[in-house]
Structure formats: structure tokens, C-alpha cells
Design a protein that fits this description.
six-stranded parallel sheet, elongated, Rossmann fold, alpha/beta, single chain
Amino acid sequence: MVYPSFPSTCLPPVGEGSESLNGLGVLVTRPEHQAGPLCQWIEQHGGVVIRCPALVIGEPRDWTPALAIFDRLADYNLAIFTSANAVDRAMPPIRERGGFPSGLEIAAIGPATARALARHGVDLCLQPEQGFTSEALLALPRFQRVTSQAIVIVRGEGGRELLAETLTARGARVEHAEVYRRERPALDAAALLERWRRGEIGAVIVTSSESLSNLFDLLGVAGQDYLRQTPVIAVSARTAQTAANFGCHHPLLAREASDAAIAAALLCLVANPSLPVGNTT
């Protein structure tokens, strides 16, 4: 299925004749520690932020396996980071062990993960030019030649198995370093329902299928009906498809997972009269 998507060129700078969100209420479901810059941008552009973290990033149940891998990174040919959270959680213990060995290649699932690596001093890494998924990473020429190579995938607990299964089938020896755990938070659904009834929620931002699933489960039947009628901005085709599977009538696709791309989607949503914004009850 093809979903409406928006280019980042819609995004103007603040304070230079920039467009306004015109009071659009935006439900931001990103984990609290990652939501700040986007929420600030929404408020600066005349939107109303409703913070609703639908995913909590916590400590893994057991650090021991990951730390054992970090103790012997020199034994690996390639380390793949599957998210910015994986980078931020893994880098402190990796630095404590002297950092990355000189012969270790680093790969990122997409630009957000690559930017996280850059914040930690890793300026060169393999990443897809577009797509920003496991499938896109596996399509790179480097990942066609992995026979007998040792690869570590740095991720959260219970991540997708496609990378490991495909690389193993291509002859690699694959291990996982799980450095965080995703948890479902508590949610005051009654307060959200009241805001939806008053027409105060005109768009929902979801940055993972798991966040969307958590939100859907936590809202209950009445809230699910509101969610289905509200534009849902996703940052991957897989999450947009999850929204469609849940019966959401208006799944929209940002160009990528960056704040700029999400902001562009919000501005284009407001500017496009053919898409519903605001109270859809």
C-alpha cells in the first residue's frame, strides 16, 4: 500500500515568515527522553503539544551477555546498531572498554541512528541511502559478502529477527547485544478521551509499531475510535501499515524518522485541505 508522504522541503525556519500549525493539537507518543526538541518545535510553530509517551526505554533484564560481547569487540568484523536508543545505551560501556577496535566496521539502520553514532564520535558508518529499514540495510553490497564473518547486532530486547536470520543464511556468525528493554507505560486514557471529545487532538505522531500498538491497547474501545479518525503520522512504511491494520483511516508517512521530516509532515498536513485535521467526531 502507498501512503501519503511529505518532503522535508515543507519545513521553514522559525521566525522567518514560517508557516503556522494554527493551533493544531499534536499527540506526541515518542519516549519522554527523545520528545523534547520536536515538542519545542511544535510549540514554536503555533501547535499544541499533548505529550503521551507510549513506550518507555528501560534497562535490559541482564547486562551480562552484552557486556561480554563488548569485552571482545575485536573478535567481530561488523557491529550493526538498530536504533538511536541502542547507540546511547551501548556507548558508555563500550567507551569504558576503550572504544571500538580499529578494524571493526560500524553500520546504522538509518540516519537517526547514524546521527546518534556521530554524537558519540563515530563519523563513518554504513547506512542505507533510503528506506532506513532492515531490508534496506541488507540490500547494501557490503551485506552480500558476510560468509564466516562475525557480526554483532546491538538492539533492544525482542527486536526484529530479519537481520540475524538473513545474515546467518548468508553464512555469517551473528550474536545480539541487547542493551535496553521496551516497556508499556501507564496512561490516563480518560484525560486523552476528553481532549479528543473537545476536538483538541488533530494529529498523532508515532515513531514505532510498538508505540502504536501500546497506544491502541491503552486507549480502550472509545479511544481507538478517535484514533482511527485522526491523521497518524508514521516514520516508516511498516508503522503506517500497522496503523492501517488497526483501521486508522488516515495513515501518513514522513520522509524519515528525523524531527525535520515529522515537522514537515505536520506543516503539510495543515496546509492540505484534503486531509482531515482537528475534531473528526
